[in-house]
Amino acid sequence: MSQQPEPRDRTPRPSSIVSEPATVAACRRDYEQADDVRARFDRQVQGGRR
Known about the structure:
The relative contact order is 0.07. The mean pLDDT is about 85.
């Protein structure tokens, strides 16, 4: 008999998408803070094309 996976924590968490309006300043701040995410995505995309 296989074991069932542990249930994931489904506790609601605050979301910045809902808590603040989408302003130019907020979008700019999010973009500036996400350079590591964009770099990781670029590496993944580059790796998939080889």
